[in-house]
Amino acid sequence: MSCSTGNGQVSKSLVLHGTAYSVGGLVDQINHVYKKLIKYCSIFYKLRRILPLKVPEQVYFAFVHSHILYAVEINANTHKSYLDKLIKLNNKLFRIIQDQPRRTHIIELYENYSTLPVILLHQQNLILFAHNTL
What we know:
mainly alpha; 3-stranded antiparallel sheet; 64% helix
């Protein structure tokens, strides 16, 4: 969010739950999550054909989904172009862990694991936050 500070300067920051986040800080946070998740690509390639059917889903939710959910309220409050890299990585990890070709529709992959894409997870968390505060 941008707002005027009254002296002609524009502040590019967001205050959420009493903590201020700058736009640069959000991008750094997104890049941090991206760097944490990128290492799982090679691990998932190795595990996808070894593990029983239900285990890769548990591995995804334990190691990937938890990182995305942790800061989705903050990270998704930025422009979608900043999230694009993270969204594409999440989709790639879904394809790898479910052993699906690139042509498989991403919606099918999310439905298989009964979860939502990053943008919709953000909307869901905002709705749940509003519901809990009422």
